[in-house]
Write a structure and sequence with these properties.
This protein has 463 residues and is α/β, with parallel strands linked by helices. The protein is built from twelve helices and 15 strands. A five-stranded mixed beta barrel has the order 3-4-5-7-6. It has a five-stranded parallel sheet with strand order 9-8-10-11-12, sandwiched between helices. A hairpin with a 4-residue loop joins strand 4 and strand 5. The protein is elongated and about 185 Å long.
């Protein structure tokens, strides 16, 4: 325990350093038990125990701050050097250094309260108008061939989307509308990009940017952007910030993606997945065709063993036996030499009648058998036609998604002399020999001029 004041020989009262610190602590802390302080953060550092130490300052003073681990783990916004924050806590004195400080319990970016109120106000307004209603949400096309992207041409979000699309399905065309995604006027540029994309030949539109503070993401909370998304005639995917970030555009869009990369994976099914689905469909169709043929064979076998055929066969045998009897009687008459002429006529008449009857029954049996065979043939041909139609539909889908289909629409693939695909002008300088692959045939060419194209896209703003 610190020693109390001592009396000097000359009557002066002398205090120890620790006593002065303690008394200042007793005076300060009761007066500032719960305060809000706003200032610029600097000198941020974290201890091994998880405590945060930093300084809040303005243009005339600075205040040391500490946020112990018990409160730091619940901070949604971590302090960053150079940014303005509001801190809530109590003013205390650290006796060991004789320094006053604020012990922080709550920390948020300066201005967040106003922005949060504006966010909730606009969210409530648009919700009442029905812009968030599930029934107005549109489904994404399962096999898009052209995708529009509204974002910064220099941002990481665009690079992530292009990388995922190239890996999963490089036959999909991407039309990019460059727009600022933060700062003054960014919301108007994003809305203008959505309006232009709505009139272009694209299957869907992705509006996106990477992560950032609430101020950085604010253009996607502006009403002009929300109404542009709602008015866009094409399905819109909102991929703004990180997975924990939510903006007004996420609520209005037809689909929300947690990240730009996730948006690309949502809209583009991989070529391997498509090939597997086609193979599975082919297997199911072949199995169904084999099953139908088996049923037709069973039907034919059952008809062949039908009672009607057995009756015809029995009658034919009976008639044959009657013919044999007649022949035997005729042979006896011939051998006996009696009534040869009369018996011969009777035998001839019986033979004719037997043959006529047998012929009629044979014709009837053959007609019934032919009818059954014809019915089976027509049923088999109908099944084959339907199977071919389904196969043709699958083939048309595969052709539409094939890179050769893209070449048939007038596109071409340019390769260097080593066989590498040329994706930028820098890969084919002037004088380089290149091979241009067309839908029918190829061209051997030499580059006479090479240079960058104005704008940043895989296909310019003019489509």
């Amino acid at each position: 325990m610190a020693a109390g004041p001592a009396s000097g020989g000359d009557g002066r009262v002398v205090h120890s350093v620790s006593e002065i610190s303690r008394r200042i602590k007793e005076l300060v802390e009761p007066r500032f038990p719960d305060v809000w302080v706003e200032g610029e953060v600097s000198n941020v550092r974290a201890s091994a125990a998880g405590h945060l130490y930093f300084t809040l300052k303005d243009d005339r003073a600075q205040l040391p701050a500490v946020c112990f681990r018990s409160a730091a783990v619940y901070l949604r916004f971590k302090p960053k050097n150079g940014e303005s924050f509001r801190a809530r806590g109590r003013v205390s004195v650290y006796e060991g250094r004789g320094q006053y400080q604020i012990i922080v319990e709550v920390l948020e970016p300066a201005g967040r309260g106003t922005l949060h109120e504006e966010f909730e106000r606009l969210k409530e307004k648009l919700s009442r108008e029905g812009l968030f209603a599930a029934e107005r949400k549109r489904k994404l096309p399962p096999y898009p061939s052209r995708i529009g992207v509204v974002t910064s041409a220099r941002g990481a979000a665009l690079r992530d989307i292009l990388s995922v699309l190239e890996r999963r399905h490089d036959a999909i065309d991407v039309l990019i509308h460059p727009a600022d995604v933060q700062g003054q006027g960014a919301g108007a540029q994003i809305a203008r990009g959505l309006g232009e994309m709505g009139g272009r030949d694209v299957d869907l539109v992705i509006v996106t940017r990477g992560g950032g503070s609430i101020e950085d993401l604010w253009p996607f909370n502006e009403e002009v952007v929300a109404r542009a998304i709602a008015a866009c005639p094409k399905p819109v995917v909102s991929a703004v910030g990180h997975e924990t970030d939510f903006t007004i555009s996420d609520f209005v869009a037809d689909v929300r993606a947690p990240t730009p990369s996730a948006a690309a994976e949502m809209v583009a099914r991989s070529k391997r997945e498509l090939a597997d689905r086609l193979h599975a469909g082919e297997q199911r169709m072949a199995a169904a065709f084999r099953y139908r043929l088996s049923r037709l064979r069973q039907f034919l076998t059952a008809r062949a063993g039908h009672r009607g055929f057995a009756i015809v066969e029995g009658r034919l045998k009976q008639r044959a036996q009657q013919v044999d009897d007649c022949v035997f009687r005729m042979d006896r008459v011939v051998r006996s030499g009696q009534w040869v002429g009369e018996r011969r006529r009777r035998v001839d008449d019986a033979t004719v009648r037997a043959r006529t009857s047998v012929t009629a029954m044979t014709v009837e049996g053959r007609r019934g058998l032919a009818s059954a065979v014809d019915a089976m043939r027509r049923a088999g041909e109908l099944k084959v036609v339907r199977a071919r139609q389904r196969l043709a539909a699958l083939e048309e889908t595969l052709q539409a998604l094939s890179p050769l289909g893209v070449l048939a629409r007038g596109f071409a693939v340019c390769r260097t002399a080593e066989g590498r695909v040329v994706r930028s002008a820098q890969e084919a300088p002037a004088g380089a020999d290149v091979t241009i692959l067309l839908h029918e045939g190829r061209l051997e060419a030499r580059v006479t001029k090479s240079g960058a194209v104005e704008g940043a896209s895989r296909e310019g703003d003019d489509g």
